[in-house]
Design a protein that fits this description.
alpha/beta; 4-stranded antiparallel β-sheet; 11 helices; disordered N terminus
């Protein structure tokens, strides 16, 4: 199907490089009851695979990613990377968020070296600098090493964020809608930048996106999430295009629009399943109209404003109106 996997991926551990089993995330409601936003999420990713997760807003896509990153505690289930269950954040899992999250007082190179210096503490200063320069050049910023964030466009800043993540040589790259704030041309350019890096580095990658075309173009599989609460994997879609990807060839592939139609159909089904049909009481038009009429008939019949109280309020109103007229004259 695709050629992103290396010969060593025949080992059992590489066939289940990332394993998410029966994942649960619950938050308390105002009454202290646990509400499961994620319930029974299961996903297995072989080494080097790119999987995207799509679903409606609020279904829990980013929640799954932050739990895999170790930034969000799980309420149940387990997550393992390379055969070891994770217990918190670590440099083996790098995250690129929707916002670049750069330190404004540091240059692009310094922002990248911030992580490199901690992951490669035994390397020389020159070696660490070469790593930073290499990955900035890989994302097209070889001539912008010493620019500050304020001197760069949004697309350039996001390239720095991508370089910072891949410079750590992570086992897993986590992309949380990294192109969501960019224009269409910059988005397509950065998609190709990341795909070139992934083809060269063979990094196992999880991408969160709302863009169906982006999911098809960048992924080996697309994971479709059901709508929450109690969200889980609804369906997995295999993407048959080989790597490296060519955008024109993908768009012209005879199966492209079939894949796209399947994703759209799933999202529409989830959208309709979230709409709870009104009960017979809610659809009783006559009862509703009687209620409106009753409220209209009694809106001036307020006991607290009857008799002297009502006269007092009316008098105050007339006095204030008279004062305003005097001021205008």
């Amino acid at each position: 199907m695709h050629d992103t996997l290396t010969p060593t991926d025949h080992r059992p551990i590489d066939r289940r490089f990332v394993e998410i089993f029966n994942l649960v995330k619950a938050y308390p409601n105002p009454y202290g009851e646990a509400v499961r936003v994620i319930d029974g999420f299961n996903l297995v990713m072989p080494k080097g695979e790119v999987v995207s997760i799509i679903g409606h807003s609020g279904c829990g896509k980013s929640t799954v990613l932050t739990m895999l990153a170790g930034l969000n505690e799980t309420s149940g289930g387990s997550i393992a990377v390379a055969g070891r269950e994770i217990s918190g954040p670590g440099p083996d899992r790098a995250v690129v968020f929707q916002a670049p999250c750069l330190l404004p007082w540091m240059t692009s190179l310094q922002n990248v070296l911030l992580g490199v210096d901690r992951v490669y503490p035994h390397g020389t200063k020159t070696e660490r600098r070469q790593i930073g320069e290499y990955y900035l050049a890989a994302v097209g910023l070889g001539d912008s090493l010493h620019k500050y964030p304020r001197e760069m466009s949004g697309g350039m800043q996001q390239r720095v964020g991508i370089a910072r993540a891949i410079a750590l040589k992570p086992r897993v790259l986590l992309l949380d809608e990294p192109f969501g704030r960019l224009d269409s041309l910059t988005r397509m350019d950065l998609q190709d930048v990341i795909l070139r890096v992934l083809d060269r580095e063979h990094i196992t990658t999880l991408l969160i996106t709302h863009d169906i075309d982006e999911a098809i173009y960048m992924s080996d599989r697309v994971c479709m999430m059901t709508s929450g609460p109690n969200a889980k994997v609804g369906k997995l879609l295999e993407v048959p295009f080989t790597r490296p990807r060519d955008r024109a060839a993908v768009l012209e592939h005879p199966g492209y629009y079939d894949l796209r139609g399947e994703l759209v159909s799933f999202l529409e089904e989830q959208d309709h399943s979230c709409v709870k049909p009104p009960s017979s009481d809610e659809t009783n038009w006559d009862d509703t109209m009687h209620l409106v009429e009753a409220m209209s008939a009694t809106q001036y019949d307020v006991p607290a404003l009857q008799g002297p109280t009502l006269a007092h309020h009316m008098g105050e109103r007339d006095r204030l109106l008279g004062e305003r007229q005097t001021h205008r004259v």
